[in-house]
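Tutorial, part two.
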Amino acid sequence: MRRLFQNLAFDLIAVLVVGVLAAVIGWGISKHSIPMPPPLPQDRRTAQTATVTIHNNAASADKDGKVNGLRVYDPDSDNLAEYTDGSQQPLGSHVAIYVYNLASDVHLTIRHKGEIFADDDFPRLEDEKKVKFFDLILDGDLEVETKEINLKNQQGIAMVHINDSSLALVTSDGQEWSDGQDIAFGQRSVSIAAKDRDLKAQIKIGDRIAAVKVILKGRTAFVDDLNIDGDIFFQLDIASDEEVKAEQEAEQKEAQARVSEEKSSSDRGTKSAGKKKGQSGGKAKLDAKKQDQLNGQTKPDTGKKDTSSDKKQDNNPEEKYATVTIEDESGSVFVGVVTDDDKGSHDLNPNNMKKISSGARLPIGTRIAIFKYYDPKYSSFKVIHNGKYIVNRENDLGGEGSYSTIELTLEGDLVVTCSPVDGGRHTNEEGR
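Running the prediction step on this input gives:
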């Protein structure tokens, strides 16, 4: 028994000694800070995957069953599995890329590890044998992007894009534009005539927005001096109730301001004419002749003296009348009454028409023809009929020796104005 207790005491002492030694050693390690192994290099601590980004923007040109396809896939997989946008893929993955563009010309950009791997244009694909494949081993983030282009742009040719031609008629220089039509680069003015719906029209040239218009049904919006240096896009959508209301209020205010301005201008003109009454007959005739000549073409002067019938009194209380106001600084505007003989003719001749003078009062229902002769110095031309604009443009249409014609039936007061752009600053000296 005594030996048993001796052994136990010895074992206890041994345990205590070992514990003390361990504590001392631990203290020594802590005290003297034995260095740890150096950290792993940065490239070994990074995740072993890369992000794959895929943007097939050229798909916006898909139409009529033709598409612009883009494939980014693993050619080593059994089912040629496609990589998805934003996915994480292991480094060392095999990646194959190609575009299958049946809808339009496209541009393909591939960036690998932040560097350009491919940056190519592809004409619209017509032969499957001409598909070009790109092959790489994933060693960093990958970005693949396509966008629709028009390779004809390099030759100064743009394409017209109209999303819905049923909503409006788009014209330029009197010629209708259609979706897919090719036009030359340059300065252009366009008009958008809404059909039977109130519209909101956005015009883009390339990637930039050139104009935004709200167009009431049956009305026409004019956009001048468009610098076309790329494809032109007309986005036509149904206008909201708020947009329609705002446009109606703006038109009413503008028409009221214009009528007031024209009345004041007419009053000033009457007073000025009274002061010039003493001008010599010879000089007056010479000035009148110069005024009647434009681009080598003499504007019509019927020789018919304005009579009191122009300012016919309301002898019949049942008959309603409208006032015709003409403010023309250039002499490039002729306003006349369409007679019964003229009504059946599509080729109205001002030389055979009775000229209307400013201030004339004519019965509602009178047929009117307005002729605007080309004059680049007096290109601002506006027509307000019954409180609504039917013409509002700053650029003359046509070219030297030409004119445009407007026919209407009087339903209310008519205001016709012709003046320089911006009150005398001729921004359109060349007529464009």
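The longest strand covers residues 186-194. In part three we will examine how such features are distributed along the chain.
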